[in-house]
Structures are given as structure tokens and as C-alpha cells.
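Write out this protein's structure.
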Amino acid sequence: VQLVESGGGLVHAGGSLRLSCVASGFTFDVVTTIVWFRQVPGKEREFVASLDGSDTANYSDSVKSRFTIFKDTRKNTLYLHMNLLEPEDTAVYFCNVDVYWGQGTQLTVSS
């Protein structure tokens, strides 16, 4: 089982970016919940958004209305589309399924 995130980078505040998480070893259409977390050095990993088996999305208050989580089961890929990025969104973003984690992708938002 492997999760590989990509799409991070340097963005100006107010910009947009889309993160991807490609899964191998299992398929997203049989898992119950897929989650995006983020972590800033020295702080705990923070919940960002989740998508359950019925495609119901949940978001943290800090990203609600700016971020969108969705998946493409044909590509076995989870996405996080981020709009109106803020410097506070700077972090390493991880996708998670059950006990499995990707290596993370760095997002830096400049002010």
C-alpha cells in the first residue's frame, strides 16, 4: 500500500493550487474515509478535509469554503483544490487512509 502526494509548491497569497494523492495497493472506491492533514514544523498534524464512503466531505473551519476535496476513482487519486490561499496555509500536506500515510508535499504561501 502506498500513497504519493504531489502538487505542492510556492504560491502567492490569494492564489490557487491543487494537490494530488495517488494510491496504489488498494482502490479508493472500497475505502471508507480518505483524509488530508497538514503539519507545520513544531506543531501537531492538523485535520484539513475528509471524504467518506458516500462522498460526503468535511472540512476544518479554517479551510471551509476555500478548499475542496474530491477523488477520481478511475485514476485512484484524491485531490485537494485550494483557493484563496493564505500564508497560514503553509505546511506539509499529507493524505491518509486508515493507517497509511504519504510522504507529504510542501505548500508555501507567500504574503
